[in-house]
Design brief:
CATH class of the largest domain: Alpha Beta
Number of strands: 9
Strand content: 15-25%
Number of helices: 13
Number of domains: 2
CATH topology of the largest domain: Beta-Lactamase
Largest sheet: 6 strands, antiparallel
Helix content: 40-55%
Radius of gyration: 21 Å
Strand order of the largest sheet: 6-5-4-9-8-7
CATH superfamily of the largest domain: GAF domain
C-alpha cells in the first residue's frame, strides 16, 4: 500500500517545490522532471496533473505533457480512474548501484543478478503501468547477443508472462473490469482479449505460481515469470527469465526452481517449486495444433 503523507505535508509544500521556474543556466524540462520526483518524495501519495501544476506553479499543458512522457518511460504510473500519477519502482532502481541501502538493502537487484548468473539468461523485473506491463529493470548475461528486450519497454498484460503474473493479484471481477476497458479502447485492427480464456489461464497461474509465454511477444522467444512476494515489495512486481523458445522448453523446470530459491533467499519464503515440464509440453502442443497449416502441412510461424 502506498504510504500517505502526514497532514502537515498535504497542507503545504516546501520552497523547493514551489520554484517552478528554472534559472537561465538550467534546462527547464530537466529541472521540472527532478522537481516532480522531489514532490513525490515529500508527499508520498498519488497526485493529479492539476495538483502538480498548481503546487509547482507549472503551466497545465506542459505539466500534463511532462507527466505523460515520464509515464511512457516507466518512471511514473498512471491510474486512469483517479487520473493520478505515482512513481514506479524504476525510480528506486536507478540509484541502487550507488548505495545498495537505498533500495531494500539491494536485495531486489541482487536477486536479479543471482538469477542471471545461475540461468545464463536475460532476467527482467516488470511492473504494471496503466493497461500494460513495463520492464523497469533488465539485466543481460555477459555473453548474450540478443537485445530484443529493452528497459522501459511495455508489453500486453494478457499475453505476456510477466503481465499474467502481475494480473494474478487481481480477482476475477477486477480482471473483467480492466479488460472491458482495454477492449473498448484497443487500437483499430487489434483483436479483443477473450476475457473468459484469460480467466482460465489466471486460475492456472495462481495455482502453479508461475506464468509462461512462448512466441507471443517476439517469435522464437519466450519468458517464464512469477509474482514477487507483495509482503516484501509493497507493490506488484514480477520477475521473468527470458530465452529462446527451445531453451525454455528444455529448461523451464530449472528456471522456475531457480527463481523460487532466489526469491526465498533474498525476499523471504516462496511457494514450493512446481514441476512444469508436462504442462509446458501440453501448452506447446496445443498452441502448435491451433496454428493454420502452411505449405506442406507445416505450421505457419506466428508474427512477433
Amino acid at each position: 500500500m502506498r504510504a500517505k503523507g502526514s497532514g502537515s505535508s498535504r497542507s503545504g509544500s516546501s520552497s523547493r517545490m514551489k520554484s517552478g521556474d528554472a534559472k537561465p543556466s538550467h534546462v527547464k524540462s530537466a529541472v521540472r522532471t527532478l522537481q516532480i520526483l522531489e514532490f513525490f518524495d515529500q508527499m508520498r501519495q498519488p497526485a493529479t496533473a492539476a495538483t502538480l501544476s498548481r503546487t509547482l506553479r507549472y503551466p497545465q499543458s506542459s505539466t500534463s505533457a511532462l507527466l505523460k512522457s515520464m509515464a511512457a518511460m516507466g518512471y511514473l504510473e498512471y491510474e486512469k480512474r483517479e487520473r493520478t500519477y505515482f512513481p514506479t519502482s524504476r525510480v528506486a532502481l536507478i540509484g541502487s548501484w550507488l548505495n545498495p541501502q537505498l533500495f531494500s538493502e539491494g536485495n531486489l537487484v541482487r536477486l536479479v543478478q543471482s538469477v542471471v548468473e545461475r540461468t545464463g539468461q536475460l532476467v527482467v523485473l516488470a511492473a504494471p503501468n496503466g493497461d500494460y506491463a513495463q520492464y523497469i529493470h533488465v539485466m543481460h548475461p555477459e555473453e548474450t547477443t540478443s537485445r530484443h528486450i529493452i528497459l522501459g519497454m511495455t508489453i500486453p498484460l494478457a499475453t505476456s508472462a510477466v503481465g499474467q503474473a502481475l494480473l494474478s493479484v487481481h480477482d476475477e471481477k477486477g480482471i473483467r473490469k480492466l479488460f472491458h476497458r482495454i477492449n473498448a479502447y484497443r487500437p483499430q485492427g487489434e483483436p479483443p482479449v477473450d476475457v473468459n480464456d484469460l480467466l482460465r489461464t489466471m486460475r492456472d497461474v495462481r495455482r502453479e505460481g508461475w506464468s509462461l509465454s512462448l512466441d507471443t511477444v517476439v517469435t522464437g522467444f519466450g519468458m517464464v515469470a512469477m509474482l514477487l512476494p507483495l509482503a516484501s515489495t509493497g507493490r506488484p512486481l514480477a520477475i521473468g527469465v527470458a530465452g529462446r523458445t527451445e531453451t525454455l522448453m528444455a529448461r523451464s523446470d530449472e528456471f522456475v526452481t531457480t527463481m523460487h530459491e532466489e526469491i526465498e533467499r533474498f525476499l523471504g519464503r516462496s511457494r514450493p517449486s512446481p514441476h512444469t515440464s508436462s504442462v509446458i509440453a501440453r501448452q506447446q502442443a496445443e498452441r502448435m495444433a491451433a496454428r493454420p497449416a502452411g505449405r506442406g502441412g507445416r505450421p505457419r510461424k506466428e508474427s512477433a
